[in-house]
User: Fold this.
Amino acid sequence: MNQKLLQVIDANYNRAKEAVRVAEDIARFYFKDARLTARFKRARHDLTKILLGFKVPYQKLVKARNSEKDVGAKSLIRDKSRVGWQDLLSSNLKRAEEATRVLEEFSKMIEPSKTRSFQKIRFRLYELEKESIRKF
Assistant:
């Protein structure tokens, strides 16, 4: 299996899960909305379920990880003005949507049967974003 492909899958899986977790915690602690929190949690768990169902074991993705030599790991955070809850939520949901799109595209090369599952999660995130933004 191509190490570069495994690195893309691993990086975007981590990115998506981390971003959804931030949104989940905003729903939990800021909105205090149990239903919305559960929906974010379900999306996060569904990402894990899809990835654990890959024919490539998760341990192989972790072994392919090369954080020390990742040319994008040390990129600067350009927008340091994000201080509000809405900005934090929006930026993380966009990050999760982008990462699930990357997973959708690259899964075609590693496990095409999972492509549709990533697409479904991405569209769920779009709806969760719409619902969340209305709460501000």
